[in-house]
Design brief:
This protein has 17 helices and 21 strands. The protein is of the alpha/beta class. Among the domains are: 169 residues, Rossmann fold (3-Layer(aba) Sandwich); 131 residues, GMP Synthetase, Chain A, domain 3. The longest helix is centred in the N-terminal third of the chain and has 24 residues.
């Protein structure tokens, strides 16, 4: 297909979609009510629909009364039946794919159902909207004149019932429409190589001579790939290899700790970064303006949203609210009902609304990725912002890090213990710790209160982790590449004690 012809068609489609996005931005709550009605009506003859009498649900209140809030453990027996090829349990159309999510410290894998509807109307739609919003903000972009360098996971075949599982990124790549394959590198075959080192070599071999204009992938793993490319080619920055590269679409982990490193290897004042918020369970939000950390909540992807304030009694029926009742500045745990067969499902993510017209959010962390050993309620976004400030002020780069509590012991006050792998450690660690501690106080008033005059917590302890320690942990636990990541915050010491064994 000639590139100019492809570009003109793609550009027309992407511009047309902006009008639909503007429609749900203008009528968000009406769109959400319609989504819920459609999900219930479409699934009323499934096992879950019959059990909960979907045919008699008339409104949100009925829905809220009828179905309980659930997590993966509640749903696992039904998912196992689906994986064995039994249909019409959670969703009326056959589910062939399951996104494998191994989490961080937990070795137990989750298998999230991915229906054809969720692939088409959520994940792929999200990918197209990412481009639509980017082009809407950058009309002179030459993005479509080249290819997107994508970095995804691997896939495996699950034998029972002829169903399949793998990283979400692998499922998406394996089912990509032709237009998306045409505009991406490396090839589908190389993208799905299960062995990380072999995959990296294949990506480099196939992509070096392509005209790469954009990047897409998890920041930590993309950085590994780009640094390997620079080392192999002897180039100083990425623009020497791909001079027309202009944007990096990223998600999965907070980008702030990596931004300085990307700035160094991209060496361009005009380069853009666009964040997306997607997970195995769905595609949720996209950065819709240049140079922003706020994400537009996407409301017409077949997902109905509910929220629980994280400081509320989660068993309290009235504390669970729909999108129309959220407020700015409050931390909410997300509950989703999806076109993949998840019904009032807790995904474990915490968000804060920054705007209600339209609905924009920032990610605050995960319900299992925080520290509250002393009443400090330190969330992941607090830690990410603080370490970004500290590294910037002392001009160092962080490769990876994790934090866990040191509990009180007799007359010794507790604190937080940081394990940080630097590219090159700070020359003055005491100064770095002081800046980090101060930034944490600025970001979190509860932390500041507990640190006041060392009444409850003493100054944090920082350990310099030997090079490649985190990589070795991921390798040892078969978590290289894809969507795997190091847990940033842990409310116990299980992970760090495991990590210390590798020193």
């Amino acid at each position: 297909m000639p590139i100019p012809f492809f570009n003109s068609i793609a550009s027309w489609i992407l511009k047309k979609r902006i009008h639909q996005i503007e429609l749900f931005m203008k009528y968000p709550n009406e769109v959400q009510r319609e989504i819920l009605t459609d999900l219930i009506d479409f699934s009323k003859r499934t096992e879950i629909g019959i059990k909960n009498e979907f045919s008699t649900i008339k409104n949100y209140r009925d829905f809220k009364n009828r179905l309980p809030i659930i997590n993966y453990d509640d749903l696992e027996p039904k998912i196992n039946k689906c994986r064995e090829g039994v249909n019409n349990i959670l969703w009326p159309t056959p589910i062939k794919w399951f996104a494998k999510s191994s989490g961080t410290t937990n070795s137990k894998s989750k298998f999230i159902p991915v229906s054809l509807e969720s692939l088409e109307d959520c994940h792929y739609k999200g990918g197209k909207d990412m481009l639509s919003l980017y082009f809407n903000n950058n009309p002179d972009s030459n993005l479509l004149s080249g290819k997107c360098l994508r970095l995804g996971g691997s896939q495996e075949i699950y034998q029972k019932g002829n169903t399949y599982f793998g990283d979400l990124s692998a499922i998406i790549i394996d089912n990509l429409p032709i237009w998306a394959q045409f505009s991406s590198t490396p090839s589908q075959k190389t993208s799905l190589i299960p062995i990380w080192e072999k995959k990296i070599k294949g990506i480099i071999d196939e992509s070096l001579n392509e005209n790469v204009t954009s990047l897409a992938g998890v920041p930590s793993w993309m950085l590994v790939l780009l640094n390997k490319i620079l080392k192999d080619t002897g180039k100083k920055n990425v623009l020497e290899i791909w001079p027309e590269i202009e944007v990096y679409f990223h998600g999965g982990i907070n980008f702030d700790p990596y931004k300085n490193q990307y700035g160094e290897i991209l060496n361009s004042n005009n380069f853009k970064y666009y964040e997306i918020y997607n997970a195995s369970e769905g595609f949720f939000a996209i950065q819709d303006t240049n140079n922003s950390n706020e994400l537009l909540l996407m409301l017409d992807y077949g997902i109905f949203y509910e929220f629980i304030p994280i400081n509320s009694n989660k068993e309290d029926f009235e504390s669970i609210i729909p999108l129309s009742e959220v407020k700015i500045g409050i931390k909410y745990e997300i509950i989703i009902t999806t076109n993949g067969g998840l019904w009032r499902y807790k995904i474990g993510d915490v968000v804060i609304f920054t705007n209600l017209k339209p609905y924009r959010i920032i990610l605050s962390g995960r319900t299992k990725n925080f520290i509250n050993a002393f009443g400090e309620e330190l969330m992941m976004n607090n830690a990410e912002k603080a370490i970004s400030i500290a590294t910037s002020k002392v001009n160092v780069n962080v490769i990876d890090y994790t934090v866990a509590p040191i509990y009180m012991d007799k007359n010794i006050k507790g604190t937080h213990e940081w394990f940080i792998e630097f590219e090159k450690p700070p020359t003055n660690m005491k100064n770095f710790i002081r800046i980090l501690d101060s930034a944490l106080k600025d970001e979190n008033s509860d932390y500041e209160a507990k640190r006041h005059k060392n009444i409850t917590m003493r100054e944090p302890k920082v350990n310099i982790v030997p090079k490649n320690t985190f990589y070795r942990w991921l390798e040892f636990n078969d978590k290289l590449g894809g969507q795997h990541k190091i847990p940033r915050l842990s409310n116990n010491r299980d992970f760090v004690e495991d990590l210390i064994k590798l020193f």
